[in-house]
Each structure stands twice: as structure tokens, then as C-alpha cells.
Amino acid sequence: MLTREQFLLAEMRIVSRLRLQGASDEAIIDRVKSENLFQYPTERMLSNRTGVCLKRLDALVPDEAECTQRGVDRRAAAQAAQTITELIATGTSTQAAQANMYAMMCRYDLIDEFMKVEIGERMAGLDYTFTRVDLDAFFTRFQVEHADAAKWADSTIVRIKSTVMGCLLQVGLLAPRSEDLHPAFLDPDLQDAIEALGDAAAIQAFTGQAM
Questions:
Q1: Which among 52, 67, 117, 123 has most CB atoms closer than 10 A?
Q2: Contacts 24+ apart (CB under 8 A), 21-26
Q3: In three state form, how does the secondary structure of 69-105 look?
């Protein structure tokens, strides 16, 4: 649940490195716990956040139905997901942040819709202002259109809004205490990988440029 997860870039980099080394999910969780790689106070938090990171990496690979829908080869999609995992693990801070943001879009419908519809389409229309009122309006629409979201408590919505705004700050789409959107210069390797995944709308979400 986004209320508890946040951006988790440092944790994602650690888990991505371990996965690239060929460790199983169970081995990754065990190592994070035994060595307290996240420097968390409890084992429960370590296990939970490691699981969150692994699920984000898993979400990078579209299933067979999605590959068919997007018109992409399953093996090519898996290689693209591998590239994104490598960018998170060993890329620059900018590459890793952008790749992690894309992983969050793949994992969470709310983040995906927010980025593609609220941010990408806004910038594509040359509207570079994003206010708290706009954020509230997006959440109202999302709750109307998604039955599960309609059940969220007000406190839950507040926490998710904080996470969403934090994500925009982390990837530089929004500056602190600003209402001005800044299109990202998307890393070329990440853009190539996203294109290989047949997800052109995600590129617009970062850059505001229709593909």
C-alpha cells in the first residue's frame, strides 16, 4: 500500500543489485534482514520493504497478455526490464530515480494514471502548472472511477497524496514549494527500454512529448 512505501530509492538500489547477482527472492530477504542492509529498526520492516522492492521489479515485466496487447516480444520485454533493473542498481542518481519511478508506474495503477493522465497530458498540452487543487481533483476522479479507492479513509488519502507529491520531487518534475512542472530529460537508455516495452505513454509522462 502506497501509504507505507514511499519512493524507497536507496532500498530499490540494494535489492536490484542483489537480484542482478542472481539471488532468489528468499535469499534477498534473508540477506537484507541478517545484515540490516536498510538500517531499519525492526526485522518486520526489513521484510516488508524488501518485498515491496521485489514486487516493483517484477512489475517491470508485462505478462503475456500485456505483451500481446502492446505488440511486443516477451523476451525483448524481459531484456528491457533487465536494463531498467540495472539502471536502478548501478546507474547515476538521476537514472536510478527515473527508473524507480517507472517501476512504481508499472506496479501501481494510481501512480501510472497520475503520471500519464494528470502529468503527461498536462505537459503535452503546454500546461506546466500543478497545484494542490489539481491534486485533489485527480484523487476525486480516481475514487469515482475505482471502487476500491472509493473506500479509502481520509487519512489514507492524505498519506497517498504525500507519497505522490514526493515522487514528483524525487524525479525533478516538481521543485520544492513550487507549482511549476519541469519536464524531465529522460535518460536515453531508460527511454529505449520503455519503448521496447511498448509503453510510449510513460515517456510522455516524464517529458510531455507525445511519442
A1: 123
A2: 25/54
A3: HHCCCHHHHHHHHHHHHHHHHHCCHHHHHHHHHHHHH
- The pLDDT value recorded for residue 1 is 64
The C-alpha atoms of residue 167 and residue 31 are separated, in whole angstroms, by: 27
Number of neighbouring beta carbons within 10 Å of residue 13: 20
Considering Cα of 2, then 4, then 5, then 7, what sign does the dihedral take? positive
- Is the CB of residue 13 less than 8 Å from the CB of residue 94? no
Residue-wise pLDDT for 67-86, tens only, equals: 999 999 999 999 999 999 99
Domain residue limits, the chain? 2-207
- Could you give the 3-state DSSP secondary structure of residue 187? coil
What CATH number belongs to 2-207? 1.10.3540.10
Rounded to two decimals, the pTM is 0.95
